[in-house]
Amino acid sequence: MEWTIQELATRAGITSRALRHYDRVGLLAPSRIGANGYRYYDSAAVARLQRILLMRRFGMGLPAIAEVLADEVDTHEGLRAHIAALEEERERIDRQIRSVRHTLDALRAGAEPRMDVMLSGFNDLYKDEVISLWGERAFQAGNDWWHGKSLDQQRAWKQDTEDLVAAWVTAAKAGVGPASERAQALAARHVEWLRQIPGTPTAEGDRERSIDMVRGLGDMYADDPRFAGMYDDAAGARFVRDALRLYASTRM
């Protein structure tokens, strides 16, 4: 099939003047020019225009687009790259939609607008740490999992987390040792809590990386002042660290 310049411009949502400009700068030539002087475009030309418009949408200038197309050897590979870019864009928009919906749900429920974990995402506050320890994919998987929860599910998760932290604090104040059955049971509970979060080595069943993760978390709890406050004081954070490290070494 072929389309005239007017038909293509109308369907693409651009002007015929833009198509003529693309021809002048070497981006998109018509497939043929008829005896009547009309420009005609076939399906290959339309596919090329599709890619030009996509790159324009991503903010690329015409010279950059021309360079990409000129350097390209495999058209199929280029199309696959554009599909991947569009899928990433779709995922980003989906996350934004979920985030706004959660905000609306919170407001309807009479919740405070600034709800730390509930609206920000369970690990947004520690994004840099998560990425540095386990990679961008782990952070994104966990973040998508969190924002995919309903408001009630987020509340329940937050409550479970607070209950786990409170149990650690109570055990530390009771003076039990990191090797005690009570502390090791809490460590097992802590690892199970981690296993529920997609993207973590524990969720993926990677034993060696799971051990490293649990040890690393323990060290972070003891070394980072933010976690010392979470576990009541520095001594409490060190207790959690020691119990987790012992559990990782002997029971994982």
Automatic annotation (TrEMBL):
<dbReference type="InterPro" id="IPR009061">
    <property type="entry name" value="DNA-bd_dom_put_sf"/>
</dbReference>
<keyword id="KW-0175">Coiled coil</keyword>
<dbReference type="Pfam" id="PF07739">
    <property type="entry name" value="TipAS"/>
</dbReference>
<dbReference type="InterPro" id="IPR036244">
    <property type="entry name" value="TipA-like_antibiotic-bd"/>
</dbReference>
<feature type="coiled-coil region">
    <location>
        <begin position="69"/>
        <end position="103"/>
    </location>
</feature>
<protein>
    <submittedName>
        <fullName>TipAS antibiotic-recognition domain-containing protein</fullName>
    </submittedName>
</protein>
<feature type="domain" description="HTH merR-type">
    <location>
        <begin position="1"/>
        <end position="71"/>
    </location>
</feature>
<dbReference type="InterPro" id="IPR000551">
    <property type="entry name" value="MerR-type_HTH_dom"/>
</dbReference>
<keyword id="KW-0238">DNA-binding</keyword>
<dbReference type="Pfam" id="PF13411">
    <property type="entry name" value="MerR_1"/>
</dbReference>
<dbReference type="InterPro" id="IPR012925">
    <property type="entry name" value="TipAS_dom"/>
</dbReference>
<dbReference type="InterPro" id="IPR047057">
    <property type="entry name" value="MerR_fam"/>
</dbReference>
